[in-house]
Each structure stands twice: as C-alpha cells, then as structure tokens.
Design goal:
- By secondary structure, this protein is α/β, with parallel strands linked by helices.
- The chain has a single domain (about 5-195), classed as NAD(P)-binding Rossmann-like Domain (Rossmann fold, 3-Layer(aba) Sandwich).
- It is about 45% helix and about 10% strand.
- The longest helix is centred in the N-terminal third of the chain and has 21 residues, at about 25-45.
- The protein is globular.
- The model is unreliable at about 1-25 (pLDDT under 50).
- The structure holds NADP nicotinamide-adenine-dinucleotide phosphate (NAP).
- NADP nicotinamide-adenine-dinucleotide phosphate (NAP) binds next to helix 1.
- NADP nicotinamide-adenine-dinucleotide phosphate binds near residues 112, 117 and 118.
- InterPro entries: NAD(P)-bd_dom_sf.
- One of its GO terms (molecular function) is oxidoreductase activity.
- It comes from Aromia moschata.
- This is Retinol dehydrogenase 14.
Length: about 200
C-alpha cells in the first residue's frame, strides 16, 4: 500500500486525459506500482514475514488487457482506462507473488468496495452532482472502505497467504483472464522496460 511512485511517472505522455484518469493509465499504474515496490523489495525481504497489498477493483471485470495496447485511450468510455489499470494491478500482483515465492514476502490484491473517498473529486459537472447523491447515500465510508485493506495487511489468518484476491474481508475468485500466467509474465516484462529495471536487478 504505497504511494511513493512519482506522479510524473504515472501520467507521462497522456496530457489529453482528464486528471482522474491520468492517475490510472494502465502502463503508468503497473510502472508506478513496480517503481514503488522494487526499491522496497529488499527491505521487505529483510523484514520478512512482510506483505504487499495492492488495491485493485472489481471494475476490472469490465475490461480486458491487450498487451499490444496497454493504454486504450481511444475507447468510447474514458473510464475504461481505469478498468484496464485495475486489471493490470491484479495481473501484476499475481506475478509478483509468484516471483516472491520462498521469500516470506506475500503479495495480495483486493477490492475495497465502492467508497466515499477523494477518487470522485474530478468527475465533471453535471455528473458530479448525481454522483454525489449516490456516493453519500450508498457508498462505504472511508472507515468501512479500508477494512479489507487492513484485513489483508494485518490479519493473522492470512499469514503466508499470497497471490490471492479479496473483497469484504474474504477471498474471492478472479476471472480466468486475470489469472493468465503467461499474460502476467509478459505484462511484468513490459513493466520492467517502462520502469527501466532489469530482470537481474537485485531490487526485483
Ligand atoms: N473509492 C472507491 O470506490 C474505490 C473502489 C475500488 C478501488 N479503489 C481503489 O482504491 C485505491 C485508493 O483510492 P481512493 O478511493 O482512496 O482514492 P483517493 O481518495 O483519491 O486516494 C488516492 C490516493 O492516491 C494518491 N495518488 C494518486 N495518484 C498518485 C500518484 N500518481 N502518485 C502518488 N500518489 C498518488 C493520492 O494522493 P493525494 O491525496 O495527495 O492526491 C491519494 O492519497 C485506488 O487504487 C483505487 O483505484 C477505490
């Protein structure tokens, strides 16, 4: 649960995309997550048992991941970039878990629920007014919304559990595409290039 990657890295080269989406461009997200995770990896291994928790989203189910077009900015639905980024988060986490096998560092991902957080602040008018009613009326409060993250980060039940997906403090199944190991491996390799890391880098 890091936010240490630089904002410039996350949004590079996508100036036409609104701010809310610019933060979630798939290549940028995996790249940023990797840049955030890699330098911490040594420390996590030295502090093992330790846990990496990636906050993904159920909205990944509305997307697919095309490795030849990681940033499908021409989609008719601008939010599609976000869905793809969450898909990439999940593939990244599962591959990271495989690569960390035997280190006592675990990597899991989760959906926090729909939460009344700052994520909605850049939704444009007039959509923001309608959304505000839905968010205030039906979404989880921040305290409720962090429960699954805290559970995955801290619960003793999850000692040694890795490469899984959680929602409402329980494990959930992923769709077959998100569990595709060869796709995740290729995404990892592409992300290594974006993040300018080498497979032999001791940090990864
Ligand atoms: N809210 C929901 O309903 C919902 C549902 C499913 C999944 N999620 C996921 O939950 C996670 C947390 O989102 P949230 O709802 O808590 O949204 P949020 O209130 O907007 O928080 C996002 C956090 O990420 C930081 N951040 C954004 N872009 C960054 C970047 N490029 N580099 C470094 N830090 C960056 C923000 O920093 P600043 O505050 O300084 O801008 C903020 O602290 C996200 O991964 C989101 O996709 C949220």
């Amino acid at each position: 649960m890091w936010s240490s990657a630089s904002r410039r890295d996350a949004g590079q080269g996508h100036g036409a995309v609104p701010e809310m989406l610019r933060q979630w461009i798939p290549g940028g997200v995996t790249h940023s997550v990797m840049q955030a995770t890699a330098p911490a990896s040594d420390l996590l291994k030295r502090s093992a048992p330790s846990r990496i928790v990636v906050v993904a989203s159920e909205l990944y189910r509305l997307a697919s991941l095309n490795l030849n077009n990681l940033n499908p900015s021409s989609s008719w639905c601008p939010a599609y970039l976000y869905y793809v980024s969450k898909y990439a988060n999940i593939c990244f986490t599962l591959e990271l878990a495989r690569r960390l096998e035997g280190t006592s560092v675990t990597a899991n991902c989760l959906h926090p629920g729909m939460v009344d957080s700052g994520i909605w602040r850049n939704v444009p008018f007039p959509l923001n007014w309608a959304l505000k009613l839905v968010v205030k009326g039906f979404f989880k409060t921040p305290a409720q919304g962090c429960q699954t993250s805290v559970y995955v980060a801290c619960s003793e039940e999850l000692n040694g559990v890795t490469g899984r997906y959680f929602m409402d403090c329980a494990e959930r199944t992923l769709n077959r595409g998100a569990m595709d190991e060869s796709k995740a491996k290729k995404l990892w390799e592409l992300s290594e290039k974006f993040a300018d890391l080498r497979p032999t880098d001791p940090k990864i």
